[in-house]
């Protein structure tokens, strides 16, 4: 068994404000009104209505709203699936922004919209769609990345390799490695390490000790886990 991902949806009006911080979870910001100026690890961007940004765990970000303020739908989540979105630019996805506006309306009457808000985080991840598939991609064997991530999380005690992941996905190691670069924006082992680290962060946020977290997520020692979290 693994610790389930946690999610918090909020509708935030940044007003004429400034801030700077980092946190141990993914933060997804989807612009609804105005422009939120944000700088993540030295990389500046502006989140206007119809734009979005994912801040990865541990990334320091400075933000400020312009004179008239900014409104964003904000998702704080520990779901490892957002790792691939953090490495990509804001998607040109009308579905994502239509969904964000719908969820923003739901948050104004949460009791009547409990089901929508419950499934909202998963729908946002599905709607992100940073790289639309081409006609040739659609004929390829589909990789169920969330299912593959769950399979890996249950086997941190084993020395997993690209060949192991490829076998589960019913692909050759070279095919899987290329698909991972294409669809996740990173190498297969980097994707695996990001999952392991995200799981470790989830357990630490849940109050588990460093030693027990290291044991459950397959790190050689508590000090190796601490070093990875610091990096």
UniProtKB/TrEMBL annotation:
SMART domains: HTH_ARAC (SM00342). InterPro entries: AraC_XylS_family_regulators, HTH_AraC, RmlC-like_jellyroll, RmlC_Cupin_sf. PROSITE patterns: HTH_ARAC_FAMILY_2 (PS01124). The keyword Iron does not apply. One of its GO terms (molecular function) is sequence-specific DNA binding. Gene3D superfamilies: Homeodomain-like, Jelly Rolls. Residues 146-231 form the HTH araC/xylS-type domain. Keywords: DNA-binding, Transcription, Transcription regulation. The keyword DNA-binding applies. It holds the Pfam family HTH_18. PANTHER family: HTH-TYPE TRANSCRIPTIONAL ACTIVATOR RHAS-RELATED, TRANSCRIPTIONAL ACTIVATOR FEAR. This is AraC family transcriptional regulator. It comes from Variovorax gossypii. The lineage of its organism: Bacteria, Pseudomonadati, Pseudomonadota, Betaproteobacteria, Burkholderiales.
């Amino acid at each position: 068994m693994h610790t389930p991902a946690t999610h918090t949806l909020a509708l935030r009006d940044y007003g004429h404000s400034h801030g700077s911080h980092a946190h141990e979870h993914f933060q997804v910001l989807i612009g609804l009104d105005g422009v939120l100026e944000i700088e993540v690890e030295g990389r500046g961007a502006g989140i206007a209505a119809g734009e979005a940004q994912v801040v990865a765990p541990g990334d320091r970000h400075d933000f400020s709203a312009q004179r008239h303020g900014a409104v964003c739908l904000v998702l704080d989540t520990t779901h490892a699936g957002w790792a691939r979105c953090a490495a990509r630019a804001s998607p040109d996805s009308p579905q994502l922004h239509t969904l964000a506006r719908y969820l923003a309306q739901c948050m104004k009457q949460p009791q009547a919209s409990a089901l929508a808000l419950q499934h909202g985080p998963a729908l946002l991840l599905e709607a992100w769609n940073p790289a639309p598939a081409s006609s040739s991609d659609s004929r390829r064997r589909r990789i169920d990345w969330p299912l593959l991530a769950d399979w890996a999380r249950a086997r941190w005690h084993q020395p997993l390799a690209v060949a192991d992941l490829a076998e589960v996905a019913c692909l050759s190691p070279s095919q899987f490695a290329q698909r991972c670069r294409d669809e996740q924006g990173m190498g297969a082992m980097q994707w695996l390490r990001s999952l392991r680290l995200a799981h470790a962060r989830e357990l630490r946020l849940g109050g588990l000790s460093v030693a027990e977290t290291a044991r459950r997520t397959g790190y050689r020692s508590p000090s190796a886990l601490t070093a990875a979290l610091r990096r």
